[in-house]
Amino acid sequence: MDFLPQNISDYAEAHTTAEHDLLKKLNRDTHLKILQPRMLSGHLQGRFLAEISHLMRPRRILEIGTYTGYSALCLAEGLVDDGKLITIDINEELETFTRSFFEASAFAHKIEYIIGDAAEIIPTLNEVFDLVFIDADKMNYTKYYNLVFDLVRKGGYILSDNVLWSGKVANIQEGKKIDKDTRNLLDFNKMCHDDPRTENILLPIRDGIMISRKI
């Protein structure tokens, strides 16, 4: 995920608004107590997600892939007063840890945290979303995108995380075998880019975010 020289990354973070105390604690506790802490959005990407949310002032946000809740808390910052964020994760082992941070936040009443299979839950949602953040299993990115597309309002956004996949998608060598996750993300990125229903930009923030605006 480290595409930029470390000094550039450090400088960017040093000139980005600091995490508030709850996010600092969540960041620290995730690294101390939870497996695969690199899955956490982290400071710079978290502030980016918060800024997008503040710019949009969404009423409804859907997140697919909660992990420990860092990105959900960042996205919730920009919700309107009667707004709601629905976040779905299949890992019930993280529920107690994650829910404790949601309940400690100022957004507890705005976050609906659902444990289960997103592919089964999404079709049951009776909502129109302003913003969707996909950050779950990479094998099902295309499925999630297609499931949520009709639930997103015109002018709304779908953000898809990890689309650079530690740079693997841009380092394909002829004759060399491509692993399944990388192949799925290559296909997903092409699908997003070729989708005539959207305009898109792939930003090299952290591990890459594909931003698709429904037109």
List the helices and strands and how they pair.
Elements: H1 6-14, H2 21-33, H3 42-56, E1 60-64, H4 70-76, E2 84-89, H5 95-104, E3 111-115, H6 118-121, E4 129-134, H7 141-149, E5 152-161, H8 180-194, E6 198-203, E7 209-214
Parallel strand pairs: 1-2, 1-4, 2-3, 4-5
Antiparallel strand pairs: 5-7, 6-7
Helix pairs in contact: 3-4
Provide structural commentary.
- This protein is α/β, with parallel strands linked by helices.
- It has one domain: Rossmann fold, CATH 3.40.50.150.
- It is about 40% helix and about 20% strand.
- Strands 3-2-1-4-5-7-6 form a seven-stranded mixed beta sheet, sandwiched between helices.
- α3 runs parallel beside α4.
- It is globular, with a radius of gyration of 17 Å.
- The chain starts with 5 loop residues before the first helix and ends with a strand.
- The mean pLDDT is about 95.
Strand count:
7
- Largest sheet entry: 7 strands, mixed
Tell me the Rg in angstroms: 17 Å
Strand arrangement across the biggest beta sheet: 3-2-1-4-5-7-6
Strand % is 15-25%
Unreliable stretches covering 5 or more consecutive residues = none
CATH class category label: Alpha Beta
Q: Work out the helicity level.
A: 25-40%
Order of helices and strands: HHHEHEHEHEHEHEE
